[in-house]
Amino acid sequence: MKKLSLLLFMSIIGTSLYAQSNESLDLEKAITIGLEKNLDVKIAVETVSIQEGNERINSGDYFLPSLDAAYTRSFSNEDVEQLFATDPNPRTIENAKSRSKNFSLAAIYGFRPESFIVMKQLGVLTEISELDAKIAVENTVANISSAYYRLVLELQRHEVLKRTLDLSKSRLDIAEAQYSLGGAGKRDFLTAEVDYNSDLSLLLGQEQVIQNARVNLNELMALNPEQQFVVQDTILIGEQLILQNLVENAFLENKTYLITQRQENVAYLQMKELRASRLPVINLNGTYATNTSNSDAGILTQNQRSGFNYGGNIQLNIFNGFTLNRRIQNAKVQQKIQSYAVDQYEIQLRSDIHRAFNTYTTNRNLLEVEQKNYEVAKESSEIALERFRLGISSYLEFRDAQVNLLTAENRLITSIFNIKEQEIELMRLSGKIFFQNSMEEFEIPTED
User: Fold this and answer.
1) Torsion angle, CA of 182/187/192/196, rounded to 10 degrees?
2) Do 413 and 153 form a contact (C-beta atoms < 8 A)?
3) In principle, which of 55, 93, 337, 347 could form an S-S bond with 122, CB 3.0–4.6 Å?
4) What angle do CA 154, 160, 164 make, to 5 degrees?
5) Is residue 405 a contact partner of residue 382, using CB atoms and an 8 Å limit?
6) Which residues 6+ apart lie within 8 Å of 20 measured at CB?
7) Following DSSP, what letter does each residue of 113-154 receive, concatenated?
């Protein structure tokens, strides 16, 4: 549990950090807040505490004796008539009092051969609970990272749309001036105005997308949906990942894969536990008791006894209707099923890594193409604007260059985001989400 706590809060130093209105928020800080406040993480940690408590309690049940103490007092007030063999006349005693006092201390210890196996099984179940908690942590880190970069992407798209709107405004101003001077028809001016309004509508719609992206990130950090903050305007891409290293790390560090292995071990221990139940059970007991009784009637007016009683027995089940045999057979089948589950998840994990890596590699290869395409589209747009300003090109030529630039910019930033998203997924699958490589910074060039 100490190791888990270190993992959960290794980035939390000193007092808690909360994003305040218009405060700068980087990814590290977002993850810090998420790990501290996300309720899925808290639930997972508390679940580990429950399992650890069960393990400690069951240790006492299997290896420590039970000890019970009892103390009783009793009183009676009776009318007694007694007839003795030596005296033919009956003896009558009215309101005869009797009192008794008893104290006992009893200890019972039963040793079952399967106890050690059960304890191993409980230890493995605790490990599974801890791994489940680590999965919650890794998923939280991955989700926050994806949501953070999604917000950065939408903000970059907003900037692209703003620049597109600026170009549309320049075109509208030129078209209006030409129409006023009689150098162009009204149709060109109206078309420019329609395109401008269309671009303005896209920009306003993008603002709503940004707000929803903020809400999604705040939800993962367990913050108020209205919380505002300023995020970085770049997406950092790590160094080229190596497929072989990812696969090797996954089979050592992927928590879900480790859980399937532990579950196979649990099934094996369950079978061993059932087999061990065939062995004899040893029960030991010991009692210390003191009894005192007083009576006004009878020959014996006081009786007091104290001392120890002890003993033991051995139990061995001879026959229980083949119930144990059926349970052992079912345990063997369950162990085989868990073995298949390990093999199945190994295939799935390897396939997931290859799928994500193929997407990752494709987007990295596309990145250089998209960067070159953006530069070409940007230069083409500048030329088209100048030609339109000089009146030597049509509005269709200018609009086509403008749309090409918008498409190229969106494809470039989307390609960068896709690389980062697959990088996060690959690091999660390989169990290395906390260990990021050195980063390369990619930023959309801005116009001077």
Assistant:
1) 130
2) yes
3) 55
4) 140
5) no
6) 229
7) TTHHHHHHHHHHHHHHHHHHHHHHHHHHHHHHHHHHHHHHHH
